[in-house]
Amino acid sequence: MNKRNVIDTEKFLMLAVKAAKANGIVVEEEKELIRRYSKATEHHNEEDPDDSYVSLESLTAYFETLSFPQKKRILFEILNVMYSDHLFDESECNFVYDLANRIGVDESELNRILSLYSNGSSQKQGSAIAC
Length: 131
Description:
CATH class: Mainly Alpha
Largest sheet: none
């Protein structure tokens, strides 16, 4: 398996957009975070990046080739997008579990990541993330 050292920022941006859309509602906080991510890509001039040309399957096939620490970092960043509005609903939870499964992060490790994320976000925001 090819382990990449650098993450493709365009693919990450498209994954972040799909994550923001997971519950069917993209709020301003999610849009703002995606705009910040967009500045690191060639899409930095687009107000709302278009993810329609790329499937979740092709994105997850790419992210599956990353090293385990990179996969964990991707999951943390995706949680940042989803939790930027301080809400994390069932559809977002399902998206994260599906994403983790697709890229090769088992459920016990994802639960550990969620716990670490929750502890960090609750210290900053005063509320915890739960699935």
